[in-house]
Amino acid sequence: MRNAADGRLLVAGPNLTVDRTAALPALRPGEVLRTGDVAVTPGGKGVNVVRAAQRLGAGATLVALVPGRLGQAVALLLADEGVALTGVQAAGEVRSTLILFEDGGRVTVLNEPGPPVDAAGWRAYEDAVAAGLEGADVLVCSGSSPPGTPPDGYGRLVARGRAAGVRVLVDTSAVLLGAALDAGPDVVTPNLAEAEAVLDRGSAGEPVDVDPRAARGRALAAATRLRDRGAGAAVVTAGAAGAAVAAGGAPLWVPAPRVPVANPIGAGDTFAAGLAVALSRGADLRDATLSATAAAAAGVAHPLAGGLDPALAASLRQDLECDPG
N or C: which end of the chain has fewer CB within 10 A? Predict the structure, then answer.
């Protein structure tokens, strides 16, 4: 019998990828460059969430589209890693992501969109998510989705989760986030650029770092606006600066602890995992955000996206407190 204290997450992360992570002295556009060793791993934001949740001791299952022969290879790699996957067959071939680390510390990520999904394919994906809701404590809708996904694709998943009595956390961007807000998710947790883009109907990149001098005020304002837009609660991450929390009362700020950075990629996914795991175990939003902030900090100290040392996360958590917004 499952221990309720363990928590169980169902992670809707449709867009699998093959991550190719490499280092080079400097990225110089227009030149032929050679990297050092390349690490090839299965990836995607949903994969990172499941990895982190498992390292935090929670049960987690990923529901993802599995395109083509390369998708089957990714599924096998995930099985080797111990990641529980419910795969939905899809046309095309799985996408790739190139992550480049420069000696000076700058990180560049090149994301492919993934092969298109048609209406029948998305319905099959929705049905697979709905079938996995029984016994789940939290549904996490994570990351991007392939071309052809209905604009309200995540909003429909939110509605399915709520109808099943499952708490729903959404970590996405652009039109998917906007439609999810209209469906009334329990929690949204975009980064600052994603939050401001959907609130102001603009476009934004996805910077790894945020200017700490302005991050706090901007994140607190964005979290409050997201809550007022339709989320039950909003947590806006602002990189190494920290995270803003807005629920029923005045917003709160959680400063991020300082750790040596091994890999900043996937920090937001580890944050979402830490938040969802804590909520699944009965924590309130304040305590869950503290746990998520500690998990994300432990995550950037780990070389694998979604990886973390749970002992380090627990140690960092002991020293964290919320500040009034």
Answer: N
Q: Which of 170, 144, 199, 192 is nearest to 276 (CA)?
A: 170
DSSP of 122-185: HHHHHHHHHHT-TT-SEEEEES---TT--TTHHHHHHHHHHHTT-EEEEE--HHHHHHHHHT--
- Whether the pLDDT of residue 207 is over 60: the answer is no
β-strand partners of 103 = none
* CA atoms 38, 43, 47, 52: torsion sign: positive
At residue 281, the 3 state secondary structure works out as: coil
Question: HSE of 102 in the Cβ direction (CA atoms, 13 Å)?
Answer: 10
**What's the average model confidence in pLDDT over 212-234?**
93
User: At how many degrees (to 10) do helices 192-200 and 212-229 cross?
Assistant: 50
List the chain domain ranges.
Answer: 4-311
Kindly give the residue spans of alpha helices, DSSP state H, lying in the chain.
45-55, 68-81, 119-131, 153-163, 174-182, 192-200, 212-229, 267-280, 285-300, 310-318
Give the Cα separation of 325 and 103 in Å (integer).
Answer: 36
SS3 assignment, position 286: helix
| Residues in the chain, overall count | 325
- At the topology level, CATH places domain 4-311 in UDP-N-acetylmuramoyl-L-alanine:D-glutamate ligase (3.40.1190)
Q: Which of helix, strand or coil describes residue 213? A: helix
**68-104: pLDDT as tens digits:** 999 999 999 999 999 999 999 999 999 999 999 999 9
